[in-house]
Amino acid sequence: MSRIIAHLDMDAFFAAIEERDTPAFRGVPLVVGADPLGGRGRGVAATSNYPARAYGIYSATPITTAWRLSEAARLAGKPPVTFVSVDMQKYVRVSGEVMQIVRRFIPRLEQASIDEVYGDVSWTGSYEEAERVCRRLKAEIHAEAQLTASIGIGPNKLLAKIASGWRKPDGLTVVRTEEAEAFLAPLSIRVIPGIGPKTEAFLKAKSIKIVTDLRALSLHQLEALLGKRGLDLYQKVHARDDSPVEEHSELKSIGEQETFESDTLDSRTILAQLDGLVRGVIDRLHHEGFRSFRTVVLTVRFADFVTKSRAHTLAMATDESAILRREAMKLMLPFLDRRENPHRKLIRLLGLRVEKLSCEMNRVGLFDGLFTLPG
């Protein structure tokens, strides 16, 4: 029997939770992200609801741009945007609640992110029955969590993911095997995973704008244009994807990053933010079902946008926040003096992530080994 795969994507997840929890936010343009500080803010929008998207504000839009677009709307007589800070602990908790609902309907799942999941629904035996199951799932999420989800159903993960974004919000789109190539043909090349803004611009300069244009190229032509990536894209534009739904997907890393409100070298400000990143990373580690990590990676972006990363791998795995905090501080301290920051440049952004993740525990204690904090 052919595979049938579903991809569920929560609609404007962070913003939808805020709208659910605060009635005053419902129906107004809403952006969850950094504080815009009257147009002088730093950072980006984490997400936006659909009224805010109508203004051109999307995930990763610089918060200063979001503010300008909000002001332009206000001056045109439209509602201004309401800006809300990110509450990641709440979003992680709600994500867990939603995933519990999904598991009641689809036993075999691969969670791709905090707000999206793949499910193998081949056991339903037909697209018609898969659609019925997914409609009941959507209704249950709405009833229990007061949130909406969009679902795509197709013969593979590629088609299911693209289909889930087809009729947002609150959509359900089915693409059968025999419909797959025709479904993709008129779509922008940007819908194909692996084609980002730079590749899109490169291909558009060669008059390759939609999937049909890309499909007209031979395997050798695509390889000549894009190297090894061309081989992968050739399969994708022909609707081919054999990747399985992996119940324990191999997430390579978990990380958080934060932009300071103003560039700084103040150690108290920096270490306080680092402590917040530690808490966020540990929360996400546990939410994703991992029990340990071994590698800690710190990223520092200076005011001139020069970015450096430093990493350390532990001898044994751990999930202790105290150990992550200790290792993050060890990596951070040289950036506060001339070892990693000889010109004493101000710092704009900090990022912290963990790698070498495992669902098993081989714990290292906080005081195992010798360590002395610098004076």
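the 2nd protein, sequnce then structure:
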Amino acid sequence: MKTIEQLISIVNNQRGATAVVIALVITVLIGFVSLATDVGYVSVTKNELQNIADASALAGAGELGNIYKGLTYDEQQVLTLDANGVDAIKASAKDVVGEGKNRAGGGNIIINDGDIFINKWPGTSVHSNDYNQPNAVRVTARKDSSANGPISTFFAKIFGIQTLDVSADATAALSGLGTAHPQFPVGISKYWFDVHQDDWCDRGIKLHPTGDIDSCAGWHTYKDWNDYQAWPSNAAKLRDILDGMRDGTFEIPLAEFNDEFVFIGGDVASSFDEMQALYEDAEKESVDGQYGWKVSIPVYDSEDCSNPSGNIRIVGFATALITDVIGPPDKIINATVKCDYVEIGKGIGSEYGSLGTIPTLVE
């Protein structure tokens, strides 16, 4: 039999072992608490920095859009940002966080000039600068040793982790034009762009007659809006639109991405005289060495070049230069689809040569 002294000794030893286990458990629990607390704080701070980076990139790209807005097509094609332009873009990007407008990690945030990149998107990560016809701005908002100071930890200090670096990136770009006032009642099939892929820039297309890959287009009477009824669509209504455009009585509606335009789907040769008269009265200009009438044209959702009929969704907008209108008996309207043109309007992402001055977040 064990003596009383032996039993007391065993109990004391077990108490010592339990104390060790409890100490280990407490240490692990503290580790979990520190992990949860500090990881949560990092996550919140990163979200705050992301909001700042998003707003800053949009502001910078918006200033880039303003620069393009004041230029002609030909000037846009040879644009190389000078120091004033670069400074204006960076100032707009940094103004978003100026004077404590946005905070992260409990403090004010500044953005370094070196964390603002002006470049092209897509096709580049925009982690460098290219001032020749740029269309995107990338911004990094950070809390680390290079800007704003790293965030201080809470419980992680127990394990020797005093601070943590946090950052967030955002890219805003002038993407495909999403709104326009199409000045000519014709659309180009998306199929035409798909077939020609990267080879449609400055490619010619016939806007009349239509129905094959060389003339992958169709006539429409716009969309229903206010008191105007685009349906039913027919040649008579098209003639009224063309006459109204000439005398200023037809108000061209604002078209938007995903709108449905009403396409005629029939022979509009009977409206050709009105088409020709509208072209003759239109204001012409020289665009990239070609002379003609520059117009915005909707791109409609189609998988072929058949004559479009009925309500069809608009997936974007292109810029075309109508260069020639040949009268009877041929009745031909020749145009050239232009690219790299920035027009006033909001971008949406789908790009058919025309970009909007109002940027969108792309990364």
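Helices lie at 4-69, 73-77, 83-95, 190-196, 235-247, 272-281. The chain has six helices and 20 strands.
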